Amino acid sequence: MKMAPIAVTPPVEQEPTDKLTVNGIEQGLNQTTPSLLDLQPISNGLSDIITKGAINGTKISNGTATPLAELDASLLTTTYTTSPRSVPAQGSPEASSSSVCTDHMIQAKWTASHGWHAPSLQPYGPLSLMPTASCLHYATECFEGMKLYRGFDGKLRLFRPELNCNRMLLSTNRIALPAFAPQELLKLVVKLCATDGAKWLPRDRAGSFLYIRPTMIASDAALGVQRPKEALLFIILTVFPKMDDIPTGMRLLASKDDMVRAWPGGFGYAKVGANYGPSLVAQGEARGMGYNQILWLFGEDCTVTEAGASNFFVVWRTEEGKVQLVTAPLGDRIILDGVTRRSVLELARSRLTAGNEGLEAIEIVERKFTMLEVEEAVKQGRIMEAFAAGTAFFVAPVSHIHFRGKGLDIPMSEGVSGKYTKTIKEWLRGIMWGNEQHEWGYVVEDEGK
């Protein structure tokens, strides 16, 4: 399948303030994937992250500089399983366990002496790591979350996969892992989906999906806090339950002053494992109290950031009478530049700013806002609805927020959702499952192996 080049789109326009991190990321890029030097800036407004004309990214052999091998999907080797796995029934405990993977996986090794080795498609199975592997000790690991959809038109689709591949490059840069050309990662993702999609998402399961998890770990078997000299990229497909169908809406517990998820100058904008493990204590506390997720706040003014691992939106009416869709900005690099977040904003800007389908015209706002503002809007009856948005939870309406000992009820005018939330969700669902032919829907030709 011929694929168009991927534009590497910066998620935000702001210049970074931590120049030490910028310089370190630039050095890592120069040392691992020199072809990226010819691309536009990659991530998070790091406008100086790539400098044309740099001559790093090489190894020395017999006194002569030669380029390190770059990730190349055309070198993929293929070994199909001889022990096919069973596809669990929809709605079964096995299907809901999030632990059942498809028949195959893709792996690609990187070493500092060679660069990227030829990737392989092979039977799904365990990884082999030494107990001293860097990822086990220093959190040198990052990943992406994507979905493969079986459309109502019978086709397999990805949703804006180039954005996930670009973001994974951002994450590997931040966590000192080797760089790669995003379009090569996309080709590998497509190959795995084409191989296992027909069996695991049969045509009679229209409207279902598989979860895609591209991951990179530092497999360097040497203790020591240093840039890894060996890494492993792997891609798996997992049977995953729907998480957005909560009849009563999501109930959120606002985080307390003694715990934050991310901070300016940190790595909240990158999809690294170190963002998630430390949040599990608070998440467990929330669920133990009957809430679905933590609503992460930051600073003394209780600035709203994310809802669990999803972006958070409110729809409210201003004191001047305008209807606004409001979400936190990306400038401080505290929150993730979510693909669903970006898509919600783009659809809202193109379809709702002048009103649509009986909905009042809405203003789209990306700015810092606080829970004190949300609380005041609830008291004044100006809150119209709220929702969380991300790959896992999709678009999940929020019905209640607990903040500083008080319960704030969020209206759901459509019974299980607000009007704007319902409309945006239906638009996205239509694109993902082929009811609307849209450039965001990336069709995968299944091979049926």
From TrEMBL:
N6-(pyridoxal phosphate)lysine occurs at K271
What the entry lists under Pfam families is as follows: Aminotran_4
The record's catalysed reaction(s) read: L-leucine + 2-oxoglutarate = 4-methyl-2-oxopentanoate + L-glutamate; L-isoleucine + 2-oxoglutarate = (S)-3-methyl-2-oxopentanoate + L-glutamate; L-valine + 2-oxoglutarate = 3-methyl-2-oxobutanoate + L-glutamate
> What InterPro entries would the database entry show?
Aminotrans_IV, Aminotrans_IV_CS, Aminotransferase-like, B_amino_transII, BCAT-like_C, BCAT-like_N
Question: Which UniProt keyword terms apply here?
Answer: Amino-acid biosynthesis, Aminotransferase, Branched-chain amino acid biosynthesis, Pyridoxal phosphate, Transferase
A GO biological-process term: L-leucine biosynthetic process
Q: Reply yes or no: does the keyword Amino-acid biosynthesis apply.
A: yes
Q: Which one of the record's GO molecular function terms can you name?
A: branched-chain-amino-acid transaminase activity
What cofactor(s) does the depicted protein rely on?
pyridoxal 5'-phosphate
Its cellular-component GO annotations read: mitochondrion
EC id: 2.6.1.42
* Taxonomic superkingdom: Eukaryota
The record's similarity note reads:
Belongs to the class-IV pyridoxal-phosphate-dependent aminotransferase family.
- Which PANTHER family does the UniProt entry name for this protein? BRANCHED-CHAIN-AMINO-ACID AMINOTRANSFERASE, SUBGROUP IIII AMINOTRANSFERASE
Name of the protein described by the UniProt record: Branched-chain-amino-acid aminotransferase
Lineage of source species: Eukaryota, Fungi, Dikarya, Ascomycota, Pezizomycotina
